[in-house]
Design goal:
The chain is mainly α. The chain is built from 13 helices and two strands, in the order ααααααββααααααα. Belongs to the binding-protein-dependent transport system permease family. LivHM subfamily.
């Protein structure tokens, strides 16, 4: 941070000023008489937290995608269908057993096994052939989407939140002062979204540590750089790649359960989250877990603030971020160093 401030003093000052204004806008006790201002503050805070939690969902989808596409160089355009399949499986599991947590296990295992089949039957036979991988996975995505339409129809499904996560909680963010009692009015926010945010942070930190501080992470990165040399040392790199692919697909299944919990699962969600994953990976940087987190946060905030303050241009704002990144930093905001 010190080096950045020394090299870019103007940008450092702008960032500090923006952070100070944001902190003041959130924590300052606004007088009750300013009802319009209080309403604007509540809208702003809700959009902020909705953008952060939506970014957490995008990160869970895109982190699996960045492992498969950005790190292993496998063009898996069926990733969005894996997300939606995980959502449907989570809905059926939760509805049949009443165990919300069990739906994560089922979605991760089943979708992870499908990822193993994709790696063994498709990508292993088409290594380095990006065009073939693209066309084949588009076809697989269409087939999976049609099968899900045949089984579950075109209805919207939502996974019920468990009782211990239902309801709102007061956050230590002041939105106003009560005229009667003089007490501060705090922002209320759904507990389940906060728990999902914490889970996404924990998964992201665990993935970064696994890739950068463990032997299997070293093997994955070495196998991507020089597969033949690593195989010559006796490492069965194909097994490592199968496990990584299965884990990335399983993360898409977990994200489907999360998306079905605080949004819904319906036809068309596969395309939406595939495009979101592509944008997140491009913005953050291919193969970078911190980059996926940063890109997901930016896209989530852009979508939510755009839908609140400029609903007509919300989608344009998302792709504008991608265009700017491609124009000025095509390797992504957090480039992976080889």
């Amino acid at each position: 941070m010190g080096r950045f401030a020394a090299r870019h003093p103007i940008w450092s000052a702008i960032i500090v000023l923006a952070a100070a204004v944001l902190i003041w806008a959130i924590f300052a006790p606004w007088p009750e008489a300013l009802e319009d201002a209080i309403g604007r503050k509540k809208i702003f805070l809700n959009a902020l937290f909705n953008g952060i939690t939506l970014g957490a969902l995008y990160f869970l989808v895109a982190s699996g995608f960045t492992l498969i596409f950005g790190l292993m160089k496998n063009v898996n355009l069926a990733h969005g269908s894996l997300y939606m399949l995980g959502g449907y499986l989570g809905y059926e599991t939760a509805a049949a057993t009443g165990w919300w947590l069990l739906s994560f296990v089922v979605a991760f295992v089943v979708v992870g096994l499908i990822g193993v089949l994709l790696q063994v039957l498709v990508f292993r036979r088409m290594e380095g052939e990006d065009l073939k991988q693209t066309l084949v996975t588009i076809g697989i995505s269409i087939v999976i989407a049609d099968l899900m339409m045949w089984i579950w129809g075109g209805d919207f499904y939502q996974i019920l939140t468990p009782a211990w996560l239902s309801g709102p909680i007061d956050l230590p963010l002041i939105t106003g002062v009560s005229r009667r009692t003089g007490e501060y009015i705090y922002l209320t926010y759904p507990v389940v979204r906060l728990v999902i945010l914490l889970a996404a942070i924990a998964i992201g930190v665990g993935m970064w540590l696994a890739l950068n501080r463990t032997r299997i992470g070293m093997l994955v990165r070495a196998g991507v750089d020089d597969r033949d040399m690593l195989s010559a040392t006796g490492v069965r790199i194909q097994r490592v790649f199968v496990l990584v692919f299965a884990f990335g697909a399983g993360l898409a299944g977990i994200a489907g359960v999360i998306g079905g919990t605080f949004q819904s699962v319906a036809p068309g969600e596969d395309t939406r989250f595939l495009l979101a994953s592509l944008v997140v990976v491009i913005v953050g940087g291919m193969g970078s877990i911190p980059g996926a987190a940063l890109g997901a946060l930016l896209i989530g905030l852009a979508e939510q603030f755009g839908s609140v303050y400029a609903p007509t241009y919300a989608v344009v704002l998302t792709f504008l971020i991608m265009v700017l990144v491609l124009a000025f930093r095509p390797q992504g905001l957090v480039a992976v160093r080889r």
